[in-house]
Design goal:
mainly beta, Thaumatin, 5-stranded mixed beta sheet, 10 strands, globular, Osmotin/thaumatin-like_sf
Length: 169
Amino acid sequence: MAFFLVVFKNQCGYTVNPQIVNVNCGYSPRCSTPGSGGVPNPAISYTGPQPKALGASQSTQLTVNRQWNGRIFHQTGHCGAKGESCSMGEFNLDTGSQFTPQAFDISNIQGFTIGMGIGISGGDSVACTNVNCGCKNAYPVGDISGCGNDSPVRGGSAGDKTWTVTFCP
């Protein structure tokens, strides 16, 4: 089984509590299409430890399965179990072929709580530092239209990658 390395960095002036959760079929439109890969598979879910709380200027890393679909967010105490009501990074890593890139984005649809940046080694990156960062960088608060064209979504090619999630970039 192949894995990705995910590096968590805290550039905030306070402690953050990163969370990593599975959402395969929790929010995906693929789940309603039989045979589309939308059936949850425990073998490709993240089952490891949660990242430790990170003080200012600290970082840590975890490995996730290369086929993982999920969210990463800072648990403020007001976020739901899957990041509801908070800023979050969203990852669909079950693709990554030469034809379909691995997709990732920053979503503030359910609420903005913290600036985030996501980058992939040898690939694209995105950052949103405030509630008004615009559709080029993140899904805005309350915009369930996906910015009309999913413009916040970034992609990465197949193969071993290192992902970096930065809080307060």
